[in-house]
What does this fold into?
Amino acid sequence: MEPILIKDVLIMAENTLRGDLLIEHSEFAGVGEVVRDKSGIVIDGRNYAAVPGFANAHTHAAMTLFRGYAEDMPLMEWLENKIWPLEKKLKPKHVYAGTKLACVEMLKTGCTVFTDMYFYAEEIAKAVEDCGIRACISSAFFDFFSEDILEESMKRVEKDIKNLSNRKLIIPAVGPHAPYTVSLEGLNRAKEVAEENNALLHFHLAETEKEVKEFEKKNGKKVVKVLDEIGFLNKRLTVAHAIWLEKEEIRILAERGVSVAHCPVSNMKLGSGVFNYRGMLEAGVNVCLGTDGAASNNSLSILEEMKFAALLQKVYRNDLEFKAEYVFRAATENGYRALKLRGGKIEKGYIADFALYNLNSVSFCPNHNLLANLVYSASNSVVYTFVNGIPVVENGYFMGDVEKELKVMEDARKAAEELCQ
Ligand SMILES: [Zn+2]
It folds into this structure.
């Protein structure tokens, strides 16, 4: 890939500055200093803000196919009567089409990497590579406390992890679903496979009050205590939700270096509960942001997620000094930290995952405070998104081509119709 030079752009670095941005060998090679006579692609940046790419730290990408399919129902009724019957009919081609739609949606809202948990890892990987986004793909499994199912699942998981390894845009992860669907033995095995293959771990934790109460009744101890005792908590692990935890449990997560994917919209929509954001920050937990799947969100926009995350703390916890900066960091550098990637910041030597936002859009006018505009008012103002230094959204369209974008939607529509028939 030839060098890319963005001239005279507003750069959202540690301190916002105006200058040139140079990308070479998939990295930021120059930030802010004026570059002259550089061959390669040159973009006039005068009307743009360069912003680090977002990391969507927890989603089920292919669930875009179920967007708006079942609304306004209690969680279990929703899962049992609506979502699970559809998921039974899922074929690899549906997952491919749904994941592609998700990738395009995320790229167009400035997201450059996502952590996924769903079925058919290879189809997800194909969609990710075809779209040019980066992803941490978890090979998801349940064992429902059965040894036979566990053995069968682990064979598939190990195979998935091998297939997902050594691919440029993909980070492999083992994805035991949740404490109420996977045995402690299953979690142990997941951890071992992750260690043996240098993969990450992705898991749902303490999403509902009922689930943690039942766990405690069954095991006689708090869920985080038990997970810690079996050595499941470590730096490879990202847990989604983490709502129903006590102070001591939060402290343990911080101490073990576990990352947490906070998913405020899904938590609000399913009435799951309210995240203790301040408690997590004070304990030093690496808090990231996730959208969860489109069936419970219904959008995959981290821009929206930042706003909801901040507002939820203000209204529910009366935390009026909760800063926009917290959610911005969560969405960018913390998300990349969870994936062990040198990204999520516009700094020399960091991977060039970022987006250019149109400052000539109403939601950025006036621009007193770029961070506040991004968190609280930016809507669809992404003009370019770069992943690994390559533009994958150009002039506001996926691959710079409206026809390509329409084709992704057409394929997803067909897949959704087939499933919902
Ligand atoms: Zn989830």
